[in-house]
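Exam review. A common question shows you a sequence with its structure tokens and asks you to describe the fold in words. Practice with the pair below. Do the first one on your own.
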Amino acid sequence: MGSFRKVLTLRTSAEGDILDLTEELVSAVRESGFKEGLACVFVGHSTAALFTIENEEGLRRDMRDALERSFPKDIEYEHHLRWGDGNGHSHIRSAFLGTSLTVPFHEGRPDLGTWQQVVLMELDNRGRDRMIIMQIIGE
């Protein structure tokens, strides 16, 4: 059993931006040289999220719309009162969606479904540089 770590820095363009990380994950598993194990993908920020989705425009739009219905931008958040940065909704959305994802892999390939991609979603009110850590444990 061993471990492998890969760190990526990606730039998002705007709130609601969804970046497909699937090929980066496939590449990291390949680089690790492991055939069996687990890959943990983590975003080191509190206003972004990681999840799996069928990465097509209709679902990307549905995801943005669902987040707005569930955690609206235009209500008052205590975070706004304290910091004045207008991104309280971003922190709440991130907490509910999550900042990490674990994907098993077998025979050197992530065990993702046919229509399942690993994505990063920008939740802050502007684009940012985002650090993605892929920590792989396997043999």
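Now try the second one, then compare your answer with the model answer below.
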Amino acid sequence: MKKLIILLGLIAGISWSANAQAKKPVTVTINTPTVQCDQCKKNIENYMKREEGVTKVNVNYKSKKTTVTFLPDKTNIENVRIGIANAGYDADDEKANEDSYKKLPTCCKKPEDQQ
């Protein structure tokens, strides 16, 4: 019985220690100059929900900024930028994935490409 109590205490201590070392979420703002409309907002937010470590995404197409909250032990800001680019939009210095961009609805393309 003593061994069981000691074992349970040890497991509880390890669990508490692991939780104490978990990194806090990080929130970043990324310039997304190619977002045009509410459909762009939905596209990015839905795409980024599938990215590992991303906990929250908010796209403001009027200010052309995207705020992303992520867990730094699961992903990083570069992966977040690449994720947005893979959805078809420019993200800071990361250019949109060309194939994804071509698949966007006309309203979500750059004004010069909306013909």
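Model answer, second protein: The mean pLDDT is 87. Strands lie at 26-31, 54-60, 65-70. Full marks require stating both points clearly.
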